[in-house]
Amino acid sequence: MKGRMISPGKAKGEAIVTSEPIGFYGGIDIKTGKVIEKGHPLEGRSVNGKILVFPCGKGSTVGSYVIYGLKKNNVAPAAIINQETETIVATGVILAGIPCVDQVDISKIADGANIFVDADQGIVEII
């Protein structure tokens, strides 16, 4: 699949997929990388080392710093794939150096799929 590079880099890993937006501030624990938002489809699951796939971000601008904090605490996703990356997520992935691609049809990516992301080229491959 071809998308648009938001933050450069390459990553490979298992996809953790949701069709619901993610709010990083109050939605993901900065120390563990676990989704803590009550009622979210990914509640209780860890994003650590995974290819995190979600439509878009939501919530506070502090979410950018949560993404950066996840990276500093070594519990960040290996890469992020969005349908539409808004400024909160874009700022966070750029600060943290996490590869990110958007303008991808995320409905084609199954939870648990092995994914290769070449954000430099805007390419997402299901292995």
Question: What's the short story on this structure?
Answer:
The protein is an alpha/beta fold and 127 residues long.
Strand line-up across the major sheet: 1-5-4-3-2-6-7
Report the span from N to C terminus. 12 Å
Number of strands: 7
Return the domain count. Answer: 1
Q: Give the mean pLDDT.
A: 97
* Silhouette: globular
Radius of gyration: 13 Å
Contiguous uncertain segments of 5+ residues: none
Order of helices and strands: EEEHEHEEE
Return the CATH topology: Glucose Oxidase, domain 1
**Name of the level-1 CATH class:** Alpha Beta
How would you characterize the overall build of this protein?
There is one protein chain. The protein has about 130 residues and is an alpha/beta fold. The chain has one domain (about 5-125): Phosphohistidine domain (Glucose Oxidase, domain 1), CATH 3.50.30. About 15% of the residues lie in helices and about 25% in strands. The protein contains two helices and seven strands, in the order E-E-E-H-E-H-E-E-E. The protein has helices spanning about 65-70, 85-95; strands at about 5, 10-15, 50-55, 80, 100, 115-120, 125. Strands 1-5-4-3-2-6-7 form a seven-stranded mixed sheet. Strand 3, helix 1 (about 65-70) and strand 4 (about 80) form a beta-alpha-beta unit. Helix 1 packs parallel to helix 2. The longest helix has 10 residues, at about 65-70. It is globular, with a radius of gyration of 13 Å. The N and C termini lie close together (about 10 Å). The mean pLDDT is about 95.
Observed structural traits:
single chain; 127 residues; alpha/beta; Glucose Oxidase, domain 1; 7-stranded mixed β-sheet
